[in-house]
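Schema walk-through. Below, the input block comes first and the output block second. Nothing else is stored per chain. Lengths vary across the set, and this one has 211 residues.
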Amino acid sequence: MRDNGAASVPATAASGGCDGSVIERSWETPDAFTVIFDRYADDIHRYIARRLGSDTADDLMAETFVIAFQRRRRYDPAIPHARPWLYGIATNLIGRHRRDEARRLRALLRAASLAPGTEHGGPEDGVTERLSGSSHSALAGALAGLPARYRDVLLVIAWGELDYAEAAQALSVPVGTVRSRLHRARTRLRKALAAAGHPTSTTPQKETDHG
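--- output ---
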């Protein structure tokens, strides 16, 4: 679930029209692109911060929108929603920091294993909640052990809240590849959590098939 108060303004609900029309307008009126920034900057920052931390997120969020602005003429204005496009750019930038992300997850694993606490919910809740406590530390370790291509699919769906088709667009892969990688990611997480003493019949949400 998205954090309270964090939901994006629907593209067609905000003034200025759908994302595609705004981006097309920005081809000749560059200032129009600020509408896209205003709609999605907070969500993109939150997604990056969850993966790399707030300090890195400040820079990469800004870079995401610089790149998007530079590439705006390549955007197909027939595509009404720019979220997948922006998450794809952000995820590619995160890809430059794979080692930092893995170190961050392992640090969360070490810190959580040393901190006493009471769990509220199963291990799978840790993907959409702050990673803390014993089962969440196991999840952090499991995420750190995933191949990058699996982790990207899992987290762009769980933290970016994209559906399968949007994730495919963001990551420039077929929908079938999204399904396959997500299945493999979930399978690996189940095994890792079970090995850490936190067996679960489910994996990080979303479980719902979006088609």
